[in-house]
Amino acid sequence: MIEDLLARVQPFQVGLTTQFRSVNHRIGFVIHGKHGIGEWAPFADYGPAAAAKWLAAALEAADQPRQQIFRNEIVANGIVPALDSVAAVSWAADLISKYQLNTLKIKVGDRDQLNRVRAIRAEFPDVTLRVDANGSYRATEATELIREFAALDVAVIEQPCATLAECKAVKGNGVLIAVDESIRLATELTDELLTEIIDAADIAVLKPIPLGGSKPTLNLAAKLDLPVIISGSLDTSIGLSFVAYVAALLPTEPLPSGLGTSVLLEQDLVQTSLLPRQGVIKVSEPVLDEQLLAEATARISSVELAELTQRLIAAAEYLEEVQL
């Protein structure tokens, strides 16, 4: 598997227009296959077990024929980084005017969080707002903040606390609780853990690439039986196209989903970036732009490439082992 894999990958590095969760670029491999192209770009702090799931998803995108989908477009939400209030309002205005997005997810968990949310709500009273705390609150702090968010008509808070017990403790304070990291970072999604997730959450955030592809995502959605948000993982349009495809496989339409993140990219790898149009993402196959990929490959240093290759080999070895 490993020799075959290394023979059909090409590295890339693309920049981001703004720092996002301490990341200012994305680095990974494009995988070429008989049914398309896949993207493998796990974050730098992910070990072989987590990176193997990203590889399984990338190999599915490249090597597996597409299944019958239930819909051809997915309603998207926009994402507002942790900017100062003025910049955040300007960013939100662009998302609404350029892409006609009616749901915005605002990053919170920092000192300016309430000012940012207040400013966006004041400017856009009719837009559905979500906030994403990435598990940054303790339960006592979260309860008070959630009440303040509720007063600003925030509909959903993603992962307010790091633990499911704390998320459960702050549930029912006027803002729906969505769980992301407790699902995505779980070592094993046991039946016991799924029960805890159902108790703690009103909504499940499912990210098909970190989960390992369409099958684990669809199985998890069925077992949880919660409303679902499907989300990308700061991918290029190659990865986002696969995520949109998985969202289209869900029998029940997902809530407005995190598919609008290509606006964060300084560069992309495809001929036409997967951007929202009239608030939706079209489900389509990505068409690689060879020139853009060559430029993205040239941005990677020899040291970075060696490290990335070793991480890919470790992920492939882990995937081979668990599939035996």
Automatic annotation (TrEMBL):
Pfam families: Enolase_like_N (PF18374), MR_MLE_C (PF13378)
Domain Mandelate racemase/muconate lactonizing enzyme C-terminal: 84-177
Single Gene Ontology BP annotation: amino acid catabolic process
Signal peptide: none
MF-aspect GO terms: metal ion binding
PROSITE patterns to which the protein is assigned, alphabetical: MR_MLE_2
Keyword Protease: no
Alphabetical UniProt keywords: Metal-binding
Name this protein carries in UniProt: Unannotated protein
Source species of the chain: freshwater metagenome
